C-alpha cells in the first residue's frame, strides 16, 4: 500500500495547486489559498490557489471557443476520447479511490466504488455516442419526411457536492462530451484536490489527442469568489447542480430567470419498508449499508425504515445488534465500516438534529454521540444513531446529512405507503417483501412517489445505467443513464419536402 505522499505524487498533487485548468493547461490564479484538510486525521493535505471571478470568465471564453471545434467532431469520435478517459481512470483507480477516501472521509471500498462509477459511465457514454437517436415520423403531407435530431447544447456547468467528489462530475461530463458539449466544473470547495487529481488524469488523454483547451475545464474555488454568477451566466445553457434543496431552489430560480436549463439533484429522505414476508437478513444488510455507508452522507442514504408492527421488535433488535458491531475509524483502514463526517460543522448539525429528535418526543435507541478514540482525533467521527420516531416530526421531514436512522411502525400497507410519501423529498425508496401484491403496489402509480423505487435492494448504490434523480424537493432532474443524455442536447424537428408541390399542413388552402 502506497504512502499518502506517494499517492499525492502519483496524482500530480503539489503543495500548492493552481485553481484553474482548461484541459491540459494549469493556469495561475490570484485568489487566496485554501487548505484542504483530511477529515480522517485532520492533516492539512495541500493548498489550492483559488480561482477568482475574473479567472472564471476567462475559462468561459476558452470553453466557448472550444465548443465551436468540439461540436464538429463526429459523436463516435468524441466517444473514442471518452473511451480513453475510461482506460486512464482504470489505471488510476486505486490512488484516486484512496484520495477520495482521504480527502472526503468515505471508507476506502466506497472510494474505489466511486471511481468505478466513473469508469462505468465512461463505458456507457462510449456506447451512447453511437446512439444519439431521434425518431422518424410520418408526415401528413405527401412527399414529405419528418424526423427529429439532437444537436450539441454548448457549455455544461457542473456544480458538484462534497459527498461524491469525482463520480458526479463523470456522470455529467462523460455524457456531455459524447453529446458534443464542453464542460466547466465547479466542485465543492471541501474536496478540491480530488477534482485536481481527476483533471491531471484526464489531461494526458486530451494532450495525446490534441483536444482544444476548454473542452474540459475546472474552476477550483469557493463561494468567496464564485457563487451565483455561474447560475446567472447566459453563456451556460445547462447547469447540473448537486447539493442541498435550499441552494437548489436558488439555482433553479436563477437559471430559470434566464430561461436556461437545470438538472437539479437535491436532497433525499429515503425510506425502506420492511414487510412481514421480507427476507430480514437481506433487509438488514441493505439498511445498515444505506444508513451508515458514506457516514450517511449520500443523497440516497437510508434515513427512515418503516417496520410492520408484527416484526417491529424482532427487526429492531436485530438492527441494534448490527449497529453494536459497527467499526468506526480511519476510512483507509479496511476493517472499518464507518469513517468521519466531512467536517466539524457536519457533526454539529448531526448533534443538533438528535437534540431535536429528543425534543419532539423521539427515543434514541443507539448512538448519536462523538466517537472518542485517540486515533480519531480529527473530531469528525460520530457514532451512528438509530432513533424511534413518528414520521410527522419536523426533524424527520428534513434531510440530516449524517448517519441518523429513523425507525417508524406501520400496520397496513396503505399506511406504509402514505407515511413513505409524506415527506417533502422524493429521491430513492425501497421495499423488502416477497409478496407480489405488495411489491407491485409499491412500484405502481399508487405507490412510491420517488425517482428511484427498488424491491429487495436498498436505497443507495444505484447503478449508472438507470436515470438518477427524484421528484418534489429533490428537484426533478435526471442524470447518468437511460435517456438522461437528452437533457444535454437540443432537439430539432426537421421536415423535408422532396416533391414539387407545397401543401400546407392542417389542409389549409392559401392560394397566392
Ligand atoms: C449522491 O449521493 O449524490 O446511488 C449520489 C448512489 C450513488 C450515487 C449517490 N450511485 O448511492
Automatic annotation (TrEMBL):
* A Pfam family of this chain: Aldedh
**What sort of enzyme, by top EC class, is this?**
oxidoreductase
Domain Aldehyde dehydrogenase: where?
26-493
Q: What is its EC number?
A: 1.2.1.3
| Spans through the membrane | none
Q: Does the keyword NAD apply?
A: yes
Source species, domain of life: Bacteria
Q: Where is the active site?
A: 265
Alphabetized, the UniProt keywords read:
NAD, Oxidoreductase
GO MF term set:
aldehyde dehydrogenase (NAD+) activity
Under the heading Gene3D superfamilies, the entry gives: Aldehyde Dehydrogenase, Chain A, domain 1, Aldehyde Dehydrogenase, Chain A, domain 2
Subunit organization: Homotetramer.
Similarity field: Belongs to the aldehyde dehydrogenase family.
Quote the protein name from its UniProt record.
aldehyde dehydrogenase (NAD(+))
User: Gene name, please?
Assistant: pcd
Amino acid at each position: 500500500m502506497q504512502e499518502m505522499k506517494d499517492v499525492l505524487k502519483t496524482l500530480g498533487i503539489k503543495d500548492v495547486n493552481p485553481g484553474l485548468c482548461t484541459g491540459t493547461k494549469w493556469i495561475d490564479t490570484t485568489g487566496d489559498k485554501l487548505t484542504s484538510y483530511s477529515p480522517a486525521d485532520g492533516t492539512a493535505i495541500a493548498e489550492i490557489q483559488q480561482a477568482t471571478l475574473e479567472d472564471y470568465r476567462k475559462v468561459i471564453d476558452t470553453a466557448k471557443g472550444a465548443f465551436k471545434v468540439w461540436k464538429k467532431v463526429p459523436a463516435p469520435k468524441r466517444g473514442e476520447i471518452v473511451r480513453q478517459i475510461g482506460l486512464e481512470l482504470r489505471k488510476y483507480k486505486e490512488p484516486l479511490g484512496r484520495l477520495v477516501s482521504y480527502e472526503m472521509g468515505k471508507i476506502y471500498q466506497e472510494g474505489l466504488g466511486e471511481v468505478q462509477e466513473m469508469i462505468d459511465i465512461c463505458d456507457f457514454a462510449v456506447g451512447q455516442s453511437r446512439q444519439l437517436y431521434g425518431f422518424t415520423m410520418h408526415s401528413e403531407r405527401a412527399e414529405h419526411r419528418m424526423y427529429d435530431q439532437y444537436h450539441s447544447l454548448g457549455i455544461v456547468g457542473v456544480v458538484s457536492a462534497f459527498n461524491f467528489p469525482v463520480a458526479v462530475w463523470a456522470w455529467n461530463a462523460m455524457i456531455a462530451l459524447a453529446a458534443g458539449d464542453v464542460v466547466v466544473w465547479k466542485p465543492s470547495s471541501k474536496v478540491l484536490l480530488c477534482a485536481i487529481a481527476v483533471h491531471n488524469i484526464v489531461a494526458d488523454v486530451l494532450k495525446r489527442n490534441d483536444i482544444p483547451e476548454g473542452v474540459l475545464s475546472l474552476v477550483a474555488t469557493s463561494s468567496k469568489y464564485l457563487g451565483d454568477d455561474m447560475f446567472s451566466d447566459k453563456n451556460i445553457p445547462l447547469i447540473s447542480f448537486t447539493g442541498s434543496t435550499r441552494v437548489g431552489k436558488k439555482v433553479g430560480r436563477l437559471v430559470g430567470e434566464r430561461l436556461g436549463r437545470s438538472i437539479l439533484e437535491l436532497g433525499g429522505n429515503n425510506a425502506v419498508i420492511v414487510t412481514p414476508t421480507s427476507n430480514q437478513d437481506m433487509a438488514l444488510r441493505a439498511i445498515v449499508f444505506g444508513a451508515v455507508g458514506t457516514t450517511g452522507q449520500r443523497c440516497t442514504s437510508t434515513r427512515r425504515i418503516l417496520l410492520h408492527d408484527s416484526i417491529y421488535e424482532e427487526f429492531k433488535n436485530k438492527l441494534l445488534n448490527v449497529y453494536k458491531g459497527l467499526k468506526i475509524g480511519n476510512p483507509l483502514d479496511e476493517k472499518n465500516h464507518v469513517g468521519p463526517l466531512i467536517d466539524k460543522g457536519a457533526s454539529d448539525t448531526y448533534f443538533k438534529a438528535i437534540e431535536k429528535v429528543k425534543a419532539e418526543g423521539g427515543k434514541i435507541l443507539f448512538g448519536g454521540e462523538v466517537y472518542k478514540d485517540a486515533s480519531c482525533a480529527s473530531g469528525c467521527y460520530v457514532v451512528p444513531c438509530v432513533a424511534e420516531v413518528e414520521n410527522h416530526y419536523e426533524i424527520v421531514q428534513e434531510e440530516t446529512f449524517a448517519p441518523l436512522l429513523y425507525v417508524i411502525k406501520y400496520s397496513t400497507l396503505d399506511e406504509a405507503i402514505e407515511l413513505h410519501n409524506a415527506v417533502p423529498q422524493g429521491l430513492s425508496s425501497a421495499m423488502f417483501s416477497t409478496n407480489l401484491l405488495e411489491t407491485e403496489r409499491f412500484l405502481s402509480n399508487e405507490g412510491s412517489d420517488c425517482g428511484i423505487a427498488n424491491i429487495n435492494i436498498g436505497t443507495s448504490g444505484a447503478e449508472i445505467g438507470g436515470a438518477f434523480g427524484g421528484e418534489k424537493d429533490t428537484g426533478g432532474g435526471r442524470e447518468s443513464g437511460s435517456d438522461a443524455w437528452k437533457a444535454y442536447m437540443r432537439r430539432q424537428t426537421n421536415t423535408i419536402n422532396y416533391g414539387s408541390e407545397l401543401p400546407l399542413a392542417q389542409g389549409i388552402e392559401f392560394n397566392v
